[in-house]
Amino acid sequence: MGERIHFKRKGAVIKNGFAVSLNEPKVKYIKGVKTTPVTGQVECGDGTAYPLQVTLEELHQIVYQIRDFRFDGGGFTAAIDGSTDRVISAITAAPPTKLASSINESSDFDFSERTFLVCANDEDIDRASLDTEYTVNVAGVTDIDYRDFISEEAMWLGTPMPRNGGDLNPAATSLPFGLSFYQNTTGGYSAAPKFGIKSLVNGTTGDEIEAVCESNLQVAFTGSSPTDAAGELWLNLRFELFADDGLTGDFANTLAAGSLTYLADLIIKLAGGSSLSCKLYLSPIATSITDFTMQPVAWWPYAKEDGTPMYSATTGLPL
């Protein structure tokens, strides 16, 4: 028996150092294969929709413990033609306090959403686990009301990731987790984005970029069951950078598609200094490449029976 800890209205058992939920349906498991799948199976592995190999411990950190993140590096240069260099780079500054934000310049804007938030017109919105409602205006036209989660209950409500975007609009099946985000910075916005990825053309800000990291939190297992030690676990994940500028299209994608080729890794840092990674496919014109790294900056602390935190909110390590 492990030590029981308590969430709001939920419970879990700490076993082998990570939380195993007793009664929630957040993570779904599906049979995975490395060849052509048949009905009831999915293809998993490098370059597929299930590209991130995880252990159970790593999976539980990603799904249940990471609360927020920033980028810790990543970028490349794309020589589009003889006179145009597009430099793509991750913004490594601390993320905005609110989980959704938009800065407008006439009809152009820099818009982003990340991790655990809900649109305030969703059902069952009046909960103690939600912070004060706030409004984000996009392009001076659309007002979106949000509430950010302030307790671990965020993970059990099953609220889809908000979808207020363009070409990379997150899928309807996307669920919030501690590394999920969507960014849309339009071409006429003159400053660097506040969060996510920036794109400079010949050293000048104001270039279009869309970016997304999303998952339906399904896990493909290759063994006889998800706990088969001889099998593998692969998490559904989509990380993609894109510009609909008539020239570029996909900059980068965890899905091996079209002319993209494996040139970098997407690295996810975990508690205690460990990390995991999956292949990131870039345009073959990319040079000066550095891996994209996602660094957690906040963790859900949970609580023991006596009300004290189970984990550090800043490191994710057990207390």
Structural features, described:
The protein is mainly beta. The protein has a domain at 69-216 and 239-298. Helix content is 3%, strand content 44%. It has a ten-stranded mixed β-sheet with strand order 7-25-22-23-21-20-17-15-11-10. Strands 5-4-18-19-6 form a five-stranded mixed β-sheet. It is globular, with a radius of gyration of 20 Å.
What is the beta-strand fraction?
35-45%
Radius of gyration: 20 Å
Q: Mean of residue pLDDT?
A: 84
The low-pLDDT segments are: 1-24
- Characterize the main sheet: 10 strands, mixed
User: How many β-strand stretches?
Assistant: 25
Spatial order of the strands in the main sheet?
A: 7-25-22-23-21-20-17-15-11-10
> What structural category arises from helix and sheet content?
mainly beta
Number of discrete helical segments = 1
The sequence of SSEs as H and E is EEEEEEHEEEEEEEEEEEEEEEEEEE
Q: Quick one: overall form?
A: globular
Helical content stands at under 10%
Report the end-to-end length measured between terminal Cα atoms: 19 Å
Summed up:
With 319 residues, the chain is mainly beta.
Provide the fold topology.
Layout: E1 3-7, E2 10-15, E3 18-21, E4 28-33, E5 41-43, E6 52-54, H1 56-65, E7 66-71, E8 75-81, E9 84-90, E10 100-105, E11 108-114, E12 117-119, E13 134-138, E14 142-148, E15 181-185, E16 197-201, E17 209-214, E18 218-221, E19 233-235, E20 238-243, E21 249-253, E22 261-269, E23 275-282, E24 286-290, E25 292-299
